[in-house]
Amino acid sequence: MWEILREQLIYFWYYFDIQIRQIFGYWLLGIVVGSLISVFAKDRIHHLFMKIKDKNIGIIGTFIASILGILSPICMYGTIPIAASFSKKGMEEDWLAAFMMSSILLNPQLLIYSAALGTNALLIRLNVSIIGGFLAGLLVRICFKSKKFFNFSSFEEKKTKDTDPNMFMRLVKNIGRNIKATGLYFLLGIVITVLFQMYVPQEAFASLFSNKGFGVLMAATLGVPVYVCGGGTIPLLEEWLHKGMSMGAGTAFMITGPATKITNLGALKIVLGIKHFIYYLVYVMLFALLSGLLVDLIGINV
Fold this sequence. Notes:
This protein has helices at 2-40, 42-51, 59-71, 76-88, 93-105, 108-113, 119-143, 167-199, 202-209, 214-226, 230-242, 247-259, 262-298. The chain is mainly alpha-helical. It has one domain.
């Protein structure tokens, strides 16, 4: 028995070491870049968003808002109070929808983490996040032109934690908070991936997710309960893609995962109300399915 256990531990460490070597650099780089943006560029990004408020640029502003949402390094619970302050200052609701949707789907840290999945997956994730934000804003612009979509009355902008007068220490503390927030999920993702490599038959998994129709639907559905933290799911998604998951299925997972993460849903339900919240969920699922099917139809691979 002890010999079997020892052998299993050796296998576990072997796969764990491989995963750490493959992913750790991207995770650490994402932490550092995200903190640099948060400390030195976050206010500039949000100020730039406010500057376009008075520009008569229509749906072009919706597209710009989607890009700025991706550049914003804060989580959804931090984004909503900021969006609330934007709303009070007269920001158009379709721009707010685009900013919030793309911010949910992607941020600078997660973008860098995703580089571990390969160039194709990285570019697909970036593009679907921009498009997802833009389309969300466009739908709000068309369907809610004469009525409110958001209700920010219960939110006020939170005070920033980046208050240390020494800029270097401010950066160090921000990096520490990011490591604390994501480190456990990152290690958990590695452990789950290792267990997957050791105990899940490759052929069975490949047959489940390689189907370019059913596999997309399965991945979109799986993104709802499985996704907890972006950094934690990257090792698992990387393994799935190399074990036979189609890129379309991976795309669907990358959309529904962050969009239905429990903390994001809790925050969004407050500002949307039940009816608009259901609209949001329907939009996310349809966008994930259609994006995944299109990626597979085009024939993009890992």
